[in-house]
Structures are given as C-alpha cells and as structure tokens.
Amino acid sequence: MKRTLPALVALIALVIVALFFLKDGDTPKESPLQALAVGKMAKFTPKAPPTRLSDLPFTSPSGEQITLSSFEGKVILLNVWATWCAPCRHEMPDLEALNQEMQSDDFQVVILSMDRGGREASQKFLDEIGVTSLEPYLDPTGKFSRSIGVLGLPVTILINERGEELGRLVGPAEWSSPDARSLIEHVLTP
Fold first, then answer.
1. The CATH number of the domain where 94 resides is what?
2. How far apart are CA 104 and CA 91, in angstroms?
C-alpha cells in the first residue's frame, strides 16, 4: 500500500491537470491567423489583439522622412533586414517574388534596412542578389526598429490597413510559398 499510494496520488494529480486544460470553454480559441500559421509560416506569431506600432520616422527610398502612417489604408509586410545578415540574403528573393505577385493598391512589401552605409550599401546588396522590384527604406540608427521590438534580424511584421501589427515572424521564411500567400490573402479579404 505504501508504494501504490504515491503512484495513485500522482495519477489523480495528472487527471486533474488534464481536465483543467481540456475543460470546454477554458481553452483559448485559435485565431484565424493562428490557424494559417502552418507549413512555411509555422513560425508566424499572431498578435492578439492587433496593436498600433510606433510612428517614429524612418527614411523612404527617395530620402524623405516618413512614418508607418504613410502606408495607412494598405496592408504591408514590413521586413527589417541588413546587408550583413546571411538569413536576410536568403529570404530577400522570396520577398521580391511575393511583392511581384501580390503588390497592389491594397498590399505592399516594405524592406527596411538597418545598415549604416545608407541607401548605396543597401541598393548594392539588392543589385548583387537580383532584387529589382523592392526599394530599400532605411533605419540606420535602428531607433525605429527598436521601437517596434526588433531585437534580431530578419524580422517580418504583417501590418493591417490601420497600421496595427497583426503578427510577426522572427527569422527567415519562404515568403513566396503558398502558405505565406494564404496568410496575406486572409488579411486582404474583407
């Protein structure tokens, strides 16, 4: 009896814990974006509820200071990257393919370089890897990137037409995959 009592207590505790997690109504409901975070997008982490991002300025491809509010009314996929980042080099052609396929009045891929070498260094990198449809936005001080919680590279953030973060993917991803397109198409569908 002395040996079976601890085993019985452990079994009862396990059953109680299992019932607690499986109890109907207490388990969190899966969001539509979470349901689409599969396959090539499995690392995508939805933000619930969506939150407004910083409106600190960064530099446009034409050299003007702009903010995220400049994109309001359009869903954007904001990719924060740098020329010295090997995973960034790997995923940039996929971002280009996604942009070429899906860019519209309602959607745009925005690539934000954290390089201190400015537009010239970023553009040279893009030319070397054959990216032609994306122009580099710049955040050489990293002030904007830090304000939106970017701690490593690459980070890609899906932002709705109101400038709210819907979720992010930390690390490289295959952005031209059907999984990525499904995720973005869901956000674009009214």
1. 3.40.30.10
2. 21
